[in-house]
Write a structure and sequence with these properties.
Elements lengths: L15 E7 L5 H15 L3 H21 L5 E8 L2 E8 L19 H9 L3 E5 L11 E8 L14
Antiparallel strand pairs: 1-2, 2-3, 3-5, 4-5
Helix pairs in contact: 1-2, 2-3
Length: 158
């Protein structure tokens, strides 16, 4: 049997896109975290797996806690060592970082995402139509295996 050709073909940075529906259940953040880590490790992006999993867990947790209970859609795109994760939900309000007391048990998620990604996160309007809402939003972050910023991908911006 002949060997399979290398993928992606030489000279082509073919993006890989993965999608996961996250039901409105308290287990969704853990499942999303495991999903992201597994995909990135299978693509030999071990160095990004833990950071991406933690940031993903924070975004899916926010979608679970603050949207209208219809779940969220996680979309992972990998291209040439760059990773973009977006979580779409039915809530149209943009998330904001909050000041929290030292002893608070929640409220630090977006701050963690901001620090881990070097400020490369944001929001975009709209949600997939099957969520059943006219509005909605996506919250995204990017990480890079080579330290590049998301400016390298014009479509990956706020």
């Amino acid at each position: 049997m002949p060997a399979l050709p290398a993928w992606p073909p030489a000279g082509r940075g073919v993006p890989h896109t993965y999608t996961l529906f996250c039901p409105p259940l308290p287990t969704a953040p853990r499942i999303a975290r495991d999903y992201i880590a597994t995909v990135l490790r299978s693509l030999d992006l071990h160095q990004l797996a833990d950071a991406a999993a933690l940031c993903t867990s924070e975004l899916v947790t926010n979608a679970y806690r603050h949207s209208d209970g219809c779940g969220s859609l996680l979309r992972l795109t990998v291209e040439a060592g760059d990773v973009r994760v977006a979580v779409y939900d039915a809530a149209s309000e943009k998330p904001v970082e909050r000041a929290v007391d030292d002893d608070a048990e929640c409220g630090r998620g977006l701050r963690l995402v901001d620090v881990i990604t070097g400020g490369r996160w944001g929001t975009e309007p709209g949600a997939p139509p099957w969520l059943g809402v006219a509005d909605g939003k996506g919250v995204w972050f990017t990480l890079s295996a080579n330290g590049a910023t998301s400016d390298a991908h014009p479509g990956w911006s706020d």
